[in-house]
Design brief:
Blueprint (H helix, E strand, L loop, with lengths): L2 H41 L8 E6 L3 H14 L7 E8 L9 H9 L2 E6 L2 H8 L7 H18 L4 E3 L4 H15 L8 E3 L6 E3 L7 H11 L16 H15 L3 H9 L13 E2 L4 E2 L28
Parallel strand pairs: 1-2, 1-4, 2-3, 4-6
Antiparallel strand pairs: 5-6, 7-8
Helix pairs in contact: 1-2, 1-7, 2-7, 6-8, 6-9
Length: 306
């Protein structure tokens, strides 16, 4: 072997080894996310035979990963279901409107881009310096839910993951005075919509790494000038510190969400303390209205990652 060939092989070796490791890591992550999504779908009866599932895409890592894994699962699922992808173009300045259509067209999946100028409405209604996420999310929900009903959608899939659910739990406790989170499945009282969260068992750090390895064309979520010091970000930072200093704490916290004992809380709507019996409790419905609400409701904050 000539010296030139040896030198060339030496130059390519580190890159080849790195590519091999990344492929192994990607394969491992895909299997894990697929297993966790499949388990969540089975545990909470998220998808049934004949369902038409609408994947809501924002261009963020979570919604990309959700669609990617759902498409993968669809190929070998024991039941047949339909998938469509939907993005709401809210006409935010600088939004790269060509990114999602090009990506979705390359997948061959049916997709719809809804164009509604909610950005102007939010700017008009929300005073300068105030948080825009609340009104923005309500407007977005109303548009997506109406679209789902008009197109025969039976399930609306949002890209929330385990960490979102835990963050919402703490937001409600710290700022809302309620013990509630984002449920894996949420039915509307009028039967119009059913929201599912197939990534309910997935960790955000796994999704972030998977998105990087898959090289999804991520669209940044700071186009609207959303504030970085939001209450959710405070909780997120706290969780990241816990995860580093106390490995396994977040996993234990999530298990607690799935292992509730009403008799050891203090809500008379959930438990009849006089008779010693469990009650039906309050039913949380999907919000249909797109009008502003006076009270914060962190259990309905499905804005950050859809």
């Amino acid at each position: 072997m000539s010296e030139a060939m040896i030198a060339n092989a030496a130059d390519q070796s580190p890159a080849s080894e790195q590519d091999r490791r990344q492929k192994l890591e990607l394969n491992k992550l895909q299997k894990r996310l697929r297993r966790e999504m499949g388990q969540a779908i089975a545990d909470f009866s998220m998808i049934e035979a004949g369902d038409k599932v609408m994947c809501c895409l924002s261009g963020g890592k979570d919604s990309y990963a959700m669609l990617d894994i759902l498409l993968n699962l669809q190929k070998s699922a024991p039941v047949s279901f339909e998938l469509i992808a939907v993005n709401l173009d809210q006409k935010q300045p600088g939004f790269p409107e060509e990114v999602l259509p090009e990506y979705l067209a390359s997948l061959g999946v049916e997709y719809h881009i809804i164009e509604k100028d909610t950005y102007s409405i939010v700017k008009e209604k929300v005073p300068e310096g105030k948080t825009t996420c609340g009104l923005c999310s309500r407007l977005r929900r109303g548009i997506l839910y109406n679209f789902a009903e008009e197109h025969g959608v039976t399930k609306i899939a949002l890209g929330h993951h385990r960490d979102d659910m835990l963050e919402t739990l703490f937001l409600n406790m710290f700022y809302g005075g309620k013990l509630k989170s984002m449920p894996p499945v949420l039915h509307s009282d009028d039967g119009r919509n059913t929201v599912i969260r197939p990534l309910a068992y997935a960790r955000e750090k796994d999704i972030a790494r998977y998105a990087a390895l898959r090289e999804f064309p991520i669209i940044p979520c700071n186009l609207c000038g959303s504030q970085e010091n939001l209450q959710r970000q405070v909780i997120k930072d706290m969780f990241q510190t816990w995860d580093k200093q106390h490995p396994g704490r977040l996993e234990t916290m999530f298990r607690a969400l799935c292992n509730v004992e009403p008799s050891h809380l203090a809500d008379p709507n959930l438990y009849d303390f006089k008779e010693g019996k469990r009650l039906g409790g309050k039913r949380q419905a999907v919000v249909q209205s797109a009008e502003p609400e006076s009270n914060q409701d962190f259990g309905r904050l499905d804005v950050l990652n859809i």
